[in-house]
Amino acid sequence: MRQPLRYPWLDFDVDDVLAPAIAVRVDVTETRAEVSDHWHRKAQLVFALSGGVTCRVPSGLWMVPPHCGVWVPSRMQHSNIATANARIFFVYIEPGAAELPDRCCTLSISPLLRELIIELSECAPDDARCAFLGSVLLAELPDMPVQQLHLPISSEPRLKRIAEALANDPADRSTLAEWGKRVALSESSLARLIVKETGLSFGRWRQQLHLIVAIRELASGASVQQVSGDLGYESVTAFITMFKKALGKPPAQYLSSIARNGGSAFVA
Prior knowledge:
Elements (H helix, E strand, L loop, with lengths): L20 E7 L5 E6 L4 E8 L2 E5 L2 E5 L3 E5 L5 E5 L4 E7 L11 E4 L2 H10 L7 H13 L5 E2 L2 E3 L4 H12 L7 H7 L4 H12 L3 H18 L4 H7 L5 H12 L3 H11 L7
Antiparallel strand pairs: 1-8, 2-7, 3-6, 3-8, 4-5, 4-7, 5-11, 6-9, 9-10
Helix pairs in contact: 1-2, 4-5, 7-8
């Protein structure tokens, strides 16, 4: 059942607005903010200018680091969790208004598109300027490169239980054999199940979760030392090595290159 889409920062339902594209700016306070599971007729682009957002959809977790966006197709169930002090833009797009993927994905956001989103959020949906800005945005958005930084989540009950436990405590370093005991599977059976359902080995799957959490927390202002400890790494060096091997750059350089290049440092 659809949840009411009466966000605290809106006095209208976005689905009632017929403009091809509208944008809403949200400045999160000192504590993190969450929009629980819901869906709407319009598709949605979740764009973070600062701070970070994590989107949860039935098939996985998607991270929105600064200067990138997550595309959520029309009528897809999802929730959003923003870090403290984040500056976020929600762009709502009429179904079929642009040729965009029918699946959830991460998009690089160019400097031009970033400015269009900001400007669009400052004009009324029925304003002629809004219509013009929306048309340019819809022409640019399909050209944004699709990137991949998400955690596949299976609907399989045992894997869902493991995913939820790790999301709640990413520092948990239990082995595959230990997880197998918790869900009544042998180590080999659990290993095969994870690969079948997610396409990743257990180690790679857990690492992907660590990357999502790390980028989210670093984007919200946490130090590398703090994030390293929160994820259960024995040393900062070990964390930086993992991060650089996975994403090609150490944390500080990675985040600064995203901000500088409008998301083009985002790698699969």
